[in-house]
Amino acid sequence: MKIKRRASRKINVGNVALGNFNPIRVQTLCTTKTTDIKATINQILELEKIGCEIVRVIVDNVNEADSISQIKKEINIPLVADVLYNDEVILKAIRRGADKIRINPGKLELTNLKRVINEAKSFNIPVRIGINMGSLPNNILDKYGQTSEAMLESAYQAVNEFEKEGFDNIIVSLKASDVLQTIEANLKFAEKTTYPIHIALTQAGSSFGGLVKTSVSVGHLLLSGIGDTLRFTLAGNPKKEVLAGHYLLRSLGLREGPIVIAGYSSRSTIPVDEIAQRLEEELIQVTSPLKIVILASLVEKDEMRTADLGVAADGDVGVIFKKGEEIKRVEKDEILKTLLDELNNLVPANK
């Protein structure tokens, strides 16, 4: 099965292209205070290492907007300013070099929205129209209630205002905490327009609950060919969001790269989960389609027949397999290093 992606317009966010069948971009949101410039830079650089392609920072006041220019000097991926409704802060964020802004148009007065549109146009940067169920205009909620139709109406009205100003450099997101409402709104919006769509949930829940709910909603939309950027909204370290995004794309054949398969049981004498997680992090930038298998016991070694590389526990010893054949046995605490060394041989220069 091959997913047929929706045709959408091409948008450039800094030096990253999205839409028009470009790779689906993985993004996240910094958890640092934007005015803590050093901490924000350090977090973004760490996120870059594991494949974050676009990063957002919270910009709620002029001091945070002023921080953008300094942060931009030290990072290598596009920086998005997340400003909900303060037009003066939005304008300053644009002038300080944001590569894109994300706004909630339902919270802006029409005259202020026009100022934002014209400023974005003059700086030639895109705007993400962020439609969230929790912050829809009252007149729309009064008419439609908290439904997918309400999100759609809000999106159409916002897009119309941008188009009236001759501005189509936009990305749209329609998000709720409800999985089915999010899916329905995005499916219908995708049918009516060609604007790029950012897919995610809002307030998805705990790390575990958010992972499940986002995998269902974002996964369903991706299978339907919808989505030009994505985010897993998970509590805690944003590294988890980036890793989850890449792994979902790989699982659906929308990105090439290694797949790590781990099997755990009460037979296990090696730290299967720890090894698997470390490998996933180390391999996130690798694009070779490798299959790596981590098994709790040598009893299940038949799984290695189709593996490029793997390990199975035999007591406290790790039995290393390569291309289906046993190549060596190592002590438990040497398993991870051995696998990484073998991977370097399989994938020269980490490609």
TrEMBL record:
InterPro entries: Dihydropteroate_synth-like_sf, IspG_bac-typ, IspG_C, IspG_TIM, NO2/SO3_Rdtase_4Fe4S_sf. The keyword Metal-binding applies. Residues 266-344 form the IspG C-terminal domain. It comes from Candidatus Roizmanbacteria bacterium RIFCSPLOWO2_01_FULL_37_12. This is 4-hydroxy-3-methylbut-2-en-1-yl diphosphate synthase. Its cofactor is [4Fe-4S] cluster. Pfam families: GcpE (PF04551), GcpE_C (PF26540). The keyword Lipid biosynthesis does not apply. GO terms for biological process: isopentenyl diphosphate biosynthetic process, methylerythritol 4-phosphate pathway; terpenoid biosynthetic process. Keywords: 4Fe-4S, Iron, Iron-sulfur, Isoprene biosynthesis, Metal-binding, Oxidoreductase. Residues 9-245 form the IspG TIM-barrel domain. It comes from the Bacteria. GO terms for molecular function: 4 iron, 4 sulfur cluster binding; 4-hydroxy-3-methylbut-2-en-1-yl diphosphate synthase activity (ferredoxin); metal ion binding.
